[in-house]
Amino acid sequence: MTQNYRTQKVAWLESCTFLADVLTRYSLVEREYQKDLNTDQCIETALVQVYIAVLTFAAQVQSLYNRSRAVLIWKSISEDSLFDLQKSIDEAESHLGRWLKIVDRHEQRDRGKQLLEKADRMLTNIDQVIDSLNELNGKMVLAELKIAEEAHYNANTGEEYQECLQETRTELLKDIRSWATDPDRKAVFWLQGMAGTGKSTVSRTVARWLDGEGLLGGSFFFKKGGTDREDAKRLFTTLTKQILERLPQLQEPVKRAIKETRGIGSNNPQEQFNELLFKPLKSLNIGLKSPLILVVVIDALDECQVPADVAALFSTLPKLTDLKNVQLRVFITSRPEPPVIKGFRSIGNDEIILHQIERSIIEHDISVFLRERFQRIRDDHGLAKNWPGEETHKALVNMAVPLFIHAATIYRFINCEGELPNDRLQAILSSHSSDGMEKIDGEYSKLTGIYLPVLKHIVSQKESRELRCWMDDFRRIVGATVLLFSPLSSVSLAKLICSDKAKVQVRFSTLQSVVSVPKDSDAPVQLLHLSFREFLVDHSASGEFWIDELAGHTQLTKDCLECMNRELKRDIGRLSNPGVRKDEIEKTLLESYVSPELRYACRYWIRHLENGDQSGINWRLIEDFLKLHFLHWLEVMSLLGWVSETIGSITALQSLAKVSDVELEPKD
Q1: CB of 332 within 8 A of CB of 206?
Q2: What range(s) does the Nephrocystin 3-like N-terminal domain occupy (predicted)?
């Protein structure tokens, strides 16, 4: 009996140890799985079954322990009953263990899946970084192509842009659109016309339509005196960048061309066309059943600075027919200047001559234009609905035909502030008597018929002394404006020519029918049309308003030298590190230390010298400048990214000095 009791006691102790072990393990299991809100219901059920078995076992042990020794003896309770209960716990535990293994396998699979997803995300991020680096590298390579930022048809240049009004140029635009979309038409379309016939207006209208139809490859609007816009070396680089936006798949071959062709950005236009456009386009396979048509618009080709570059352009155009997958069309406008005429004779092209379009069609279009503009005047000034009257309207149309610039100038002159529209209208009508009109013949005579009356009206009521002052200011201020190689604001122009700012602005305010004067005094003042410049420098046309080009350029050379002497100095940009890269210098910092007039003077003083009166050159003034500021000038040219231009400028200066038998010795 005693032995039986001892055996049971040992069994109880072992049972307590067993219970402690089970409870400890599964309290940890429970705590771990409670952290996961998504714990499987089967695990929860199995845990409960284990706890039920444990509690049953504990209750039985306690019950046995509480019995009297006599009862224990008589019942002969052995460890068998405890063993059975322990076995039930083992079974519940085994059941739970199986579920835990299943869940663990799921969790491992989920963790593996999560790791794969995380790896995928990391790889995606790495790919994005690589793509960004490749894109940055591509931009850096393409940045080597120097472009004319303001040559695009809708560039924000501050100029007054016009497009064809509805119901005007209808047949002309219809023909151009037919040419652009018909794969069987010739690759080149030439729209020629004399000054003021509206070529640029048509070009801009065509470019916008092509853009809307997804056919525009690029556009380049040449402009004399427009810095980069008169440089043919910017033509194909600019068009290449625009075409890349339309055909990004050309990026790789274009980048290869830039890397493999040294100095492609400044090479001759013919080589630029071959390497940047022709070869990449010829190798392009876009997988279309019919060729992709892209049209390039080139406006005012005659305003290209170097005639030889015009010839180079025409040598490239015949190659367009060799392109198969992409049909590159070129729409060109220009005056019928000899280099352009010669170039078009060498190629096959479609052609329309603006000033030879039927007079009735031109009359209709100019009439529509003037009616629309006179409606504006009536609205602005509260004039009668029938103003200015049908007969007057017809007379004004007759004056303008075939020049749209004539009609536009009439409108701007009549609508100028400071005088009643009727008074200005009468001034125009009285200056165009029937006898006078019979004497007007030819392009410049027709322009004289509008520009001369405008200028004469401005001075008509001035006393002799006031008139002399006005004419002096006109030659100085307007003369400088028409001879500048890049437009300046009224404020910067006043500083360049050492004139009073208020005086410059007042003089410009009287000329708004021929000069674009922005409200922002820091925006550039520009001629509304190149023909006004040509009128002023033609002595036979402009008479008393004549601008002497030679004397004007000589004076501007002196103005530039004086400006540079005033403003140039060592370390003008106040750079903390003299060895800093140019692209690391903030643009706003340069703008604050290098004024617009100083920029102009540094870039163009030698060009004015070339175009001036050689006998009037003050070489002592130039030599003194070089001794004091040669390195300062080079520093500014470098900071502004024009250092490559200094080579040609210095070569030109040396040639001029040699002709004048002068030996220049810039300070080391």
Answers
A1: no
A2: 174-335
Provide the pairing of β-strand 188-192 with 350-353: parallel
DSSP conformational letter for 234? G
Joined tokens for residue 433:
């008597």
Q: Who contacts 602 (Cβ-Cβ below 8 Å, separation ≥6)?
A: 560, 564, 568, 633, 636, 637, 640, 642
Q: Which of 532, 527, 473, 475 is nearest to 501 (CA)?
A: 473
pLDDT tens track for 208-217 = 999 999 999 9
Q: What is the DSSP letter of 291?
A: P
3-class SS at 219?
strand
For residue 292, give the 3-state DSSP assignment: strand
pTM over 0.85: no
Residue 551 Cα distances to 87, 226, 417, 469, angstroms: 120, 22, 33, 19
Q: How would DSSP label each residue in 628-643?
A: HHHHHHHHHHHHTT-H
Query: For residue range 642-663, what is the model confidence (pLDDT) as tens digits?
Result: 888 898 899 999 999 888 877 7
The pair phi, psi for residue 145, each rounded to 5°, is -80, 115
Half-sphere exposure of 422 (CA within 13 A, CB side): 7
Task: Give the torsion sign (CA, 506, 507, 512, 516).
Answer: negative
- Residue 69 in tokens: 């020794």
Tokens in use for 271?
């080589």
- How is 92-142 classified by DSSP, letter by letter? HHHHHHHHHHHHHHHHHHHHHHHHHHHHHHHHHHHHHHHHHHHHHHHHHHH
State how far the Cα of 434 lies from the Cα of 665, in Å rounded to an integer.
Answer: 63
d(CA 602, CA 571): 15
pLDDT band at 577 (very low <50, low <70, confident <90, very high): low
- Under a CB-based contact definition with an 8 Å cutoff, are residues 297 and 206 in contact? yes
